[in-house]
């Protein structure tokens, strides 16, 4: 197993193991897209271009800066009656410019769970030739590759799986913190 794990890591992939006593184990291997062609959704964030695989995108919607901030401040958005957690990519990537008055939320479905990613602008569908980033960028885990656009500009391909894992961990940590803050019930 160590040889397999090392080979997967060398390819910038991940392996997850879930075991349940009496039921068995599930091995999930995730490998980056390299030199593949995918349908992607081209996004803009702080003047830079990014791509997410179109296959996992469910929908895009607007979020306005002047709307009620109650849910937005908690990192959730109401998508037709379902509360969907989101990650503001401006914060994640440390964008320095001011947020636009109208941002876009890209809602994705990963393992039958919905998550949102807030970006400045959704440009549209783009057929993407995925290229590896190279050793210089191997420590930047939130990117799975890059592509060259028709105008010669480079767009970075987001590793949505890694961003979703970060969002899941944040949600779990917040749940644990809120449980610890709940007053203990008195027993008689």
Could you describe the 3D structure shown?
- By secondary structure, the protein is an alpha+beta fold.
- 22% of the residues lie in helices and 45% in strands.
- The chain has 4 helices and 12 strands; from the N terminus they run H-E-E-E-E-E-H-E-E-H-E-E-E-E-E-H.
- The strands form 3 sheets. It has a 5-stranded mixed β-sheet, with no helix packed on it. A 5-stranded mixed β-sheet has the order 5-8-9-7-6.
- It is globular, with a radius of gyration of 19 Å.
Task: Write out key terms for the chains shown.
5-stranded mixed beta sheet, 4 helices, alpha+beta, about 190 residues
Percent of residues in β-strands: 35-45%
Q: How does the helix and strand content classify structurally?
A: alpha+beta
Supply the number of helical segments. Answer: 4
The overall strand count is 12
Layout of helices and strands:
Blueprint: H1 2-10, E1 14-20, E2 24-30, E3 37-45, E4 48-53, E5 57-64, H2 69-73, E6 76-79, E7 82-88, H3 89-93, E8 102-110, E9 113-119, E10 121-129, E11 143-148, E12 154-158, H4 160-181
Parallel strand pairs: 4-12, 7-9
Antiparallel strand pairs: 1-2, 3-4, 3-10, 5-8, 6-7, 8-9, 11-12
Structure in a nutshell:
By secondary structure, the protein is of the alpha+beta class. The chain has helices at 2-10, 69-73, 89-93, 160-181; strands at residues 14-20, 24-30, 37-45, 48-53, 57-64, 76-79, 82-88, 102-110, 113-119, 121-129, 143-148, 154-158.
